[in-house]
Amino acid sequence: MVIQKETKSCGQVVEEWKEFVWNPRTHQFMGRTGTSWAFILLFYLVFYGFLTAMFTLTMWVMLQTVSDHTPKYQDRLTTPGLMIRPKTENLDVIVNVSDTESWDQHVQKLNKFLEPYNDSIQAQKNDVCRPGRYYEQPDNGVLNYPKRACQFNRTQLGDCSGIGDPTHYGYSTGQPCVFIKMNRVINFYAGANQSMNVTCVGKRPRHSRDKGRDEDAENLGHFVMFPANGSIDLMYFPYYGKKFHVNYTQPLVAVKFLNVTPNVEVNVECRINAANIATDDERDKFAGRVAFKLRINKT
């Protein structure tokens, strides 16, 4: 025998939902009394309050082990990399001498980049240091903050300083300046107390043909470096971090390419020659070096 379920009308369904939400006979709200709801809310209040307190305590304990000025772990930054300015996509410096727009963007970037190196700003904010020695500023038990930085004046960049330069860093004449800077590593004594400098060569990656590598060296032509011989002085080290070294300006090396073969892409590699900076790690092309492409288009 089949028992048929009673079919409820729409009005009955609505009345049942109303009674579920609020039952005036038992004074229950959604199936629970006020006391039951109070216990539930109290439980979750205590539960989530405990989780919040435990999380806050954990974060506080962890932050006590972290310095505001020096990263706790920097083992992956033992070898500083090099980078070029103007900063371009894929590190390609392409100049069309007859097209002002092709190189004006580089000039604007360099103007902004070199502004903190103006002699007047350096004289106002930084110290005149003794060359050939590290500029150490130990705390000696008392926080020595902020650290002073050594002056690196824009005029040290010679023909690449851009000061009163009608050639716009050489970009308008097809003799562009490219600036090499070494990435900052906190408390790193670059050079191991020995002199260091930057050198550049025309050089293709190892997987390229040897003939192409020789062509790059020929097409690169002559160039001059500022400061002389691409030297980087020890007095700009060590670097104590952004919060400690508030006015620190990195030392630069400017390379002015004088007669690059026009309308040819030239592969250039610049590297730092320092006793404690390895530059032969083929897995990291930026470890102590930088490779970029240079092309001067002339019509």
TrEMBL record:
Query: In what way does this protein cross or attach to the membrane?
Result: Single-pass type II membrane protein
Signal peptide start and end residues? none
Localization per record: Cell membrane; Membrane
Q: Which InterPro entries match?
A: Na/K_ATPase_sub_beta (IPR000402), Na/K_ATPase_sub_beta_sf (IPR038702)
Residue ranges spanning the membrane: these are: 37-63
Query: Which Gene Ontology biological process is one annotated for this entry?
Result: sodium ion export across plasma membrane
Q: Does the keyword Membrane apply?
A: yes
Keywords attached to this entry: Cell adhesion, Cell membrane, Disulfide bond, Glycoprotein, Ion transport, Membrane, Potassium, Potassium transport, Signal-anchor, Sodium, Sodium transport, Sodium/potassium transport, Transmembrane, Transmembrane helix, Transport
Q: Name one GO cellular component term.
A: sodium:potassium-exchanging ATPase complex
Coarse class of the protein's main subcellular location: membrane
Alphabetically, the GO molecular function entries are: ATPase activator activity
Pfam entry (one): Na_K-ATPase
Checking Gene3D superfamilies in the record gives: 1.20.5.170, Na, k-atpase alpha subunit (2.60.40.1660)
Keyword Transport assigned to the entry: answer is yes
Its job: Mediates cell adhesion of neurons and astrocytes, and promotes neurite outgrowth.
Q: What NCBIfam families is this protein classified in?
A: Na_K_ATPase_bet
Q: Which family does it belong to?
A: Belongs to the X(+)/potassium ATPases subunit beta family.
| Protein name as it appears in the record | Sodium/potassium-transporting ATPase subunit beta
What is the protein's species of origin? Panthera pardus
Q: Which gene encodes it?
A: ATP1B2
